[in-house]
Structure formats: structure tokens, C-alpha cells
Amino acid sequence: METIWFVLVVLMLIGYVVLDGFDLGAGALHLVAARTGDQRRMVLQAIGPVWDGNEVWLLAAGGTLFYAFPLLYASSFSGFYLALNIVLWLLVFRAIGIEFRMHLANSVWRAFFDGAFSLASLLLIVFFGAALGNVMRGVPLGPDHYFFVPLWTDFRPGSHPGILDWYTVLCAVATLVAVSVHGALYLILKTEGALNARLRAIVKLLWPALVLFSGVALWASVLVHPQLLDNYRAGPAGWIIPALAAAGLGGIFHFTRTGRERNAFLSSCLYIVAVLSGAAFALYPDLLPSSGDPANSITIRNAAAGGLSLSAGLYWWVAGMLVAIGYFVLVYTMFKGKVRASHA
Amino acid sequence: MNDALFIHRIHFAFTITYHYIFPQLTMGLAPLIVALKTLGLRTQDPVYGNAARFWTKIFGINFVAGVVTGIPMEFQFGTNWSRFSQLTGGVIAQPLAMEGVFSFFLESAFLGMFLFGEKRLGRVGHWWAAFLVFLGSWLSGFFIVAADAWMQHPVAYNRLPDGSFEVTSLWGVLANRWALIQYAHTMSGAVITGAFAMSALGAFYLLNNRHAAYGRVFLRTGVIAGIIATAFQIFPSGDMHGRYMAHHQPVTTAAMEALFQSQTGAPIVILGQPDIERRRIDNPIVVNNALSFLIYGTTRAEVKGLDQFPQQDWPTNIPLLYFAYHVMAGLGTLFAAVMIVSALLLWRGALFRTSWMLWVLMLAFPFPYIANTAGWLTAEIGRQPWLVYGLLRTQDGFSSNVSAANGLFTLLGFMGLYGLLSILLLFLFQREIERGPEGPPGDEDYVPVTVSGGEA
Question: Using CB atoms and an 8 Å cut-off, which of residues 369-428 of chain B contact chain A?
């Protein structure tokens, strides 16, 4: 039962990164890729109807995590207190940038909202990447399974790490590259003209960096936390995951060259799904590893809610998520196709 | 008082109080907009359609503010109340997760269509988008109230050996009698906010001699919704809530009423300041026997006073609880009076030219916010010193791994951020009110529905 909920929570988080990832990536590139007022409008129009729904995946995943693994929710949210609160502030700024922009037809206000949207998106990606790095590296959990990490200490992932050290910053940069590519591929799918061309150039520029950072981050993860390979050593089945990630990378390259926009975006989705599944597979059954005594690690067993609670949730969760996926199909079908260059 | 505990309490109190400014208007306006749209479909009169469109803009701005201030709430259980979250997650996170899965996905899917999709969806399709957003917001309210109600009146749980709770029946948690009563009371409180906002703006337009046709529609809709909601707020929902509370949290009732000694034929204090040290009320104006009658239906019944309970189980801030409760109840009574007079004038056809009444309705606009806030203060301060009533004390629930200084840092951050947000919101609302329902088209730069094939 704990394993089922582990898989469900991971699926929700992957859903969040794949979906909100493209609008975060679009935000990070907003100021760079979209130069004119018309192009910025197109970016916002491409994500406008869907970004809020995408962000709900974060809330739903957070709620499900809270319910299925209360100890993990309690320990990690309070332990990463400072980073999490900064993430919350950035989410507020970002939403203001997207949603209030249209109410003020003034170029200075527009520039302010564009800046808030883009900068907040970029920093959110960095924080989410660093968060992933922190989970992979492990944190100094006490015997009560609680911890508190400052934003940074000496930038070394040793016994007293901060949220930012060289390893997690590396993860953050790798995530920024991956999510920017993801966002660019989504925008390519949704736009035409000069904006589309500039985004293609950005993808061409970032692709080698993405390959490089994927490799370096993988190597660094194993260096910092060698036990991450244990599950892969246990059986050959796990190796399909890195193969899929590589296929995703290849697909991005190939389909961008041949101009098959939808397949290029789907390849990027595949890459993200594979990388995050690979990370989850490496961690299992840990949820948050201890950087010190392994007995202090938070695992699916010591963090799970009571058995009655877990089984009660399965029914409504499956029903509710099926309905939610239905909404997404409806919304994406309604808003499919490219956004037009200007008001007709 | 433990410093960190105090900061974490203020942190949650500040962020939740600020947040709830927005959902009460969202949940209160949603049914009124659906009503306006229904009238528009029925009568084919374009005034209703324009009126609904105008309020949809206000709704949209307000909704965004509710979302951005609501997201931190979902995380704050973990960041600031980690021990509480660890112990109760198996129960209260269930309605919270259900809120995400059942109402947030629904709202986010249909909000865009509701705000921007009228031309594309057609009139009937757009009515459904409005209805589904209304449904989503009211469902959301229910799940939150169900979570709070479990903390007020825990039911259908098992305590595990490690001290944590698990649900024995999800249905039991959702059908908690406390939740149903509290939900009724909360939602009619939200409708009161929506109704007063709508009638206040109507009064403003009439007094201004601008957009008069819309001012009249706003007033009529606001006053009719207002008289229903203010009456329902007192009876049956307020009455039931008060009696249920007196049975299950008698010490809270005693503190709310500042009833220091048990007595038969207990009085209700209308005005006065409680003096906790001397255990008496200063400057009292009381109605004898009224409290006994309201709780037990007879003036002879005995009501337990604070003297019947150990002091460690008393609510921790009795004066604040007492004032919050009296502000809520006093304002609720005044709202009913305002709406009864307005409804009589409306019925006699005189409301639109009775300028003193228009002034009262216009100036009344902030008070439902105060009353709803005071109501929640009553519920949450009244629950003290417990997080989960009778089972888990507040001092055992906060994040002891987060220092007071870190808590203060983020509290100040939220205060600054919400200060900025308030200024921006006042500015945006003012612009929409100035432009009015008949003003030039808005300066929407991007309209998300303008995708290939669609026309904005």
C-alpha cells in the first residue's frame, strides 16, 4: 500500500514538472525570446489558459503527499523552511505577472509584469532544481526524522550542507537548461514567425548544454550519494530508464532538425519523465535520505499514514484524478493550435 | 509564552486572515453572477448580461488574489506546524488533498472559459462555465471547513501507537455534524459579503448618477440575496452553531459570553468589557435568562461558567475571543436590520430614491468582511488551547525545528508582499469601478481564448 502511494505521489510530481515545466520554461525565456509587445502577448496567450491548471498539480501533489506520507511533508516542509517560503513568494509574484498584466494597458506596467513573470519563473526553476538536488543528496536528519537546513553554508555537500552547495547548484542549473528547452519546445509548437525562429535557435544552442549537464549531474549524483545506484545494481530492468532519457534527448535533437514540433515537445516530455522516474527509482524505498546515519532516513514505511487512511483515499483519488485528466483533455483540445500573431 | 510558538501562531493567523478576504467574496459573488446570468438568459434583457460581465471582471481579479494567497496556506501546515501535520495528516490532509483533486482542477479548467470564453462558448455554454466555477468554489469551501471541523470536533478517527491519527471512516469526517453546521454558517456569511458588495456598488452608482440602470440591478440583486443570507445566518445556522458549540465546547461558550460563574437563568451580555482578573464584566448591559433560553430553550436551565473548568483548559485569550464573538454577533444583527429596511423600501418601490438608505448600504460594504473575520477568530481562538479539540494542544503542534527568528523573517516577508498586493488590488478594482459596466472595452492585451479558429 505504501508503494502504491509512493508511485502515485511520484506520478503527480512528474505530472507537475511536465505540465507546469513548460509554462515555467516559457516564463524563463520570456524576456529573451519574445522581444516585441506582440511576441510577449503570444507567449502569454500560449500559456494563459493552462498555466493555472498546471500549477494545481503542485497543490494536489502537495496535498496528496501530506495525506499519504505526513512525516515526509512535515519534516521536509519545515526543514526546507526558508527555500519553501521563498518559493511561495515567487509563486505569488509570478501569478501577479501573468494575470494582472492584461488589466493595465500601459507600457511601463506591462514591462513590470513581464519582468515579474520572467524572473519569478526563472528563480522557481532554480529552486525546484535545487530541491531535487537536496533530496538526492540527503539532508542531516536527526533521530526524530526532523532537520533544518540554512540556505547555504560552505557550499560543500558534507555533513552540514545548506540548501545550496555545488552539487545542488549544479542540479539547479541542469534543471534550468532542461526546463528552458521544454518551455521553448512548447512555445515552438504554439507560435509562428520570428518568435518561432528565435526559439528554434535557442533550442539548438541549449541542446548540447542539456546533454552535458545531464551527464555531469548524473556523475555528480553518484559521487555525492553512491547508494543511489543500489536499485540499479539489483536488476537490469532499471536500466531502461536512462535509455529512455537518452532517447528523449535524441528525439529533441532529431525532431527539432526535421521541424516536427509536436514530436520534439513529446521527446522533451519523455526526457523529463525518464529523469524523474530514474531519480524516484534510485531513492525507493527512501523518500528523503539521511546524509548521516541511514537509520534516520525517511522511508515509505516510517512516513506513511495509517493503513485505514491510505486505503480510504484510494477510491476518491482514482476517481478524482480521472475526472481531472478529463478536464485537461477538454481544455487542451479547446485551446489546441497555434496562437495568432495579432488580434484579427 | 514560548517565543517560537507565538510567532508561528501569528504567522498562520496573519496569512489565513488576509487570505480569507478573497474567498469570501469569490464564494459570495459566484452564485450572484450565476443568478444574473440566469436572468439574462430568461429575460433576454442585455442589462443582466452586461451586469454579469462586469462582476465577472471583479470576480477574476479577486479570484487570482485568492489563489495566490491560498497556495501558501496549503504549505504552511508543513512549514510552521510540522508536528501537528505529522500527527494529523492521515485525517485532515484527506479533505485538503480532495480539495486539490476535486475543486482546484475543476476551477482552474473552467475559470479561463468563464473569464474569457463568453463569445466562444455561447450564452448557454458560458452559463455552465460560470456554474462550474461556482460549484468548484463552494466545494473548495466545504473541504476546508471539513478539515477545520475535524479539529474543532474530531470524529471517525483511530489513534495509532505513535500518537498519530488515522481515519476510520472518510464519510464520517465529511459528514461530521459540526462541519455541516459550520459550512452552512460560513457560506451564508460569504453570500452576505457578496450581497453587500453588490448593493454597495449599486448605491454608489445611483448616488453618483452614473450607470443608473446597472445600479438598480445591483441593488435589487444584492438586497434580495442579502435578506435571505442575513436571515439564514442568524436562524437556523447561527442558532444551531451556537447550541452545538455549547454542548461540545462548553468552556468556549462560557468564555465567549464571559460567563465566569455557572448559573441558572444565565444572562446574555450585549455590551461590556470582561475583566479576567476580577472575573466580572465592566460596564455591562445584559439581558437576563437569555443565554439559558438560547442554548436550552428554557430560561431556567443552568449554563456552566468558566469556574466549572480547570484554568489550563480555558481559551488562552478570553478578551479577544469575547470581543470577536460580540463583534460578529452584533454586526450580524445589524446586517439583518439593514437588509430588512432595504427590502421593505425595495418592495415599496422607494429604495432607489431613498438617499439615506443608499448611503447606509454603500458605507456598510466593509463590515461583512469584519464580521466574517471576527467569526473565524471566534472559532479558532475559541478552540484554544487545543489544535485538535481535547486531543492535541497547540503548544505541541508547531515546528520546533524552525526558530522564532526564521518565523519572523518569513512573517515580515508575507506582510510586505501582501501590502504590495493590497495596493495593486485597490488600484485595479478602482479602475474597473470607474470604467463601470458600460465603459469602453477593457484593455485586455492578451485574451487567452483567441487561439486559431476562435474569436475573442
Answer: 399-403, 406, 409-410, 413-414, 417, 421, 424, 428
